[in-house]
Amino acid sequence: MNAIKISKMIFGCRLFNQSRSVLGFIKSPNSNRSLHISLPRFLGLRCAINQTHKQYYVSHPKWGRSRVFPATCCSSSNNNSNKNDHISDYSTTLENHANDKNFETSYMQGGGDLDEHACRTETEVEKEAWRLLRDSVVTYCGNPVGTLAACDPGDKTPLNYDQVFIRDFVPSALAFLLKGEGEIVRNFLLHTLQLQSWEKTVDCYSPGQGLMPASFKIRTVPLDDTKFEEVLDPDFGESAIGRVAPVDSGLWWIILLRAYTKITGDYAMQERVDVQTGIKLILNLCLSDGFDMFPSLLVTDGSCMIDRRMGIHGHPLEIQSLFYSALRCAREMLATDEGSKNLMRTVNNRLSALSFHIREYYWLDMKKINEIYRYKTEEYSTEAINKFNIYPEQIPYWLMDWIPAEGGYMIGNLQPAHMDFRFFTLGNIWSIVSSLSTPKQNNSILNLLESKWDDLVGDMPLKIVYPAVEKEEWRIITGSDPKNTPWSYHNGGSWPTLLWQMGRIELARKAVDVAEKRLYADHWPEYYDTKSGKFIGKQSRMYQTWTIAGYLTSKMLLENPEKASLLYWEEDYDLLEICVCALSKTGRKLCARGAAKSQILV
To answer: At what angle do helices 273-287 and 341-361 cross, to 10 degrees?
Structure first.
């Protein structure tokens, strides 16, 4: 249990304010001395190191390779500091779990070293996967804080694959949590929380407060001839290809926070003042008023896992599913005090409106296709059937014969006069996980996955999107992106990391069996190419961490399905009764809930 015991320490790590002088100098609030840094910006937690002192190795039997740190890296007033791993605590209060027997007991019950794991011998593939996952762990001031995106020894130009990504770390976090190792996840959540408030500027413009970084990197900065310090350097999109802000990072952070508390039983974590503030900042950013008429979140292209131009700008399903999930997580974790009352009401109203909107307007099956096929257009009325003025000619030819009679799915995007009929796997799976879709719709999505197994799984699970855009459509939608050629990368590539999110046990087991035969032999690629996923991706990194973690998490969830239930949401029928339109005093009919209720409640 050493991995989860937290005790009070005095650190060499320091938190720097935003006060900054001109010409790239960053000033410490505790010093009059300015430090010039040649790199564009270093904002984050700093760990001072004295090179004249004897170095020691920070090593842990669970963390794989060691990293070198001088003995003064993180000085401690605790004489037993060599026995326990620690994390500095920036809350207004310090929770000391070292003596908290209730927390220790609940953690073991929630996700500790399980008897089932002890009884079963790990396969050679699993042993290799765990070794690689532990080797990818990044330490900061001697504490594990995340995993690198990839550890490909043959990659001479890693770009940003040598950073810790919030979305990429989620399957790694779940693997560690299910293994009973919660310290790295706690550290990750708290350190990324501190990065949330940093200055974020692109061409003299700063986005809204509350934005989480896409990733961060640990850099070593010299202080003088004998000292240097480690710095967490976040990327909020200002270095990303296309300079797109990571909309999904904050949503994943909230989702992971709930998973951490559910599995470990460390509910004191979510009650911390800084954590509550972080949740509220993310919610305020997502729930801020704008010009949009819909409850769905409006984003630009490339703002989620599909981080390149792929025609998903507008209201992509992936963002809506994660948004809904994060709202449900936040509603569980927000403190029920006077200061949160208005925010909680806003969250409830948005959840209700969003669930109705997605279930009613994003759902597609044979019945709905036939309805769209017969749509009248140019309807000007509050009673219009074709509310988004969708032209029947938009229905693609491939769809008519592809969708099964007993299946259906959520379309990829919906905007005025535009429906994206592509099947986006992550958005549909998270519609099931969060109960954004109805129980009947959930079953239909899984039926479609099973019926279209060769298309969506093939030789390697799972297609990120189906079908690929090709020819002139590819040139227009992707801008002739050489990485997103048809059936490659985000344009119909197969991504093994999606394995852990499948919602039907027999399908998940079948998919894991397919993947297991190749991943180890292929050196754990990031993605696969071709229509069936037969070839390793042409630009795929090897030893991709979330491929490894996705496999391990899938195996553990299959062995312990009761743990999977901690990550899923049941249908919340109370949400269906909440309607902001009921508050109107105008007497006008503002929504179509009454007419659609039979579909929504099924």
So the answer is: 50
Mind spelling out the 3-state secondary structure of 556-600?
A: HHHHCHHHHCCCCCCCCHHHHHCCHHHHCCCCCCCCCHHHHHHHH
Q: Which residues of 145-158 are buried (b: 16+ CB within 10 A; e: fewer)?
A: bbbbbbbbeeeeee
Which range among 115-129, 256-270, 485-499 shows the weakest confidence by mean pLDDT? Answer: 115-129
417 vs 451: CA distance, rounded Å: 30
- State the Cα–Cα distance between residues 413 and 415, nearest whole angstrom: 7
> At a CB cut-off of 8 Å and minimum separation 6, what does 509 contact?
558
pLDDT at residue 48 tops 70: no
pTM of the model: 0.82
* Residue for token pair 């257009």: 377
d(CA 212, CA 197): 8
- Strands 215-222 and 45-50: what pairing? unpaired
Q: How far is CA 90 from CA 141, 273, 297, 499, in A?
A: 15, 10, 31, 36
Give the pair of three-digit tokens for residue 197.
């408030």
Q: Give me the residue label for tokens 């999107």.
A: 465
The type of residue at 475 is R
Sign of CA dihedral 376, 381, 387, 388: positive
Dist. CA 425–CA 410, nearest whole Å: 10
**DSSP run (H or E) holding 255:** helix 247-264
Count of beta carbons in the 10 Å neighbourhood of residue 588: 8
User: Which tokens belong to 151?
Assistant: 């550890």
Residue 23 pLDDT exceeds 60:
no
**Other residues' Cβ atoms within 10 Å of the Cβ of residue 473:** 13
> Which pLDDT value is given to residue 74?
43
User: In degrees rounded to 5, what are phi and psi of residue 415?
Assistant: -145, 170
Residue-wise pLDDT for 331-358, tens only, equals: 999 998 888 999 999 999 999 999 999 9
CA distance 267 to 272: 9
- CA contacts within 13 A on the Cβ side of 58: 21
Burial class (CB in 10 A: 0-12, 13-18, 19+), 63: buried
Choose the weakest-confidence range: 9-23, 416-430, 585-599: 9-23
The stretch 465-485 carries a mean pLDDT of 96
Structure tokens at 59: 């090593």
CA geometry: angle at 165 spanning 498 and 253, to 5°? 80
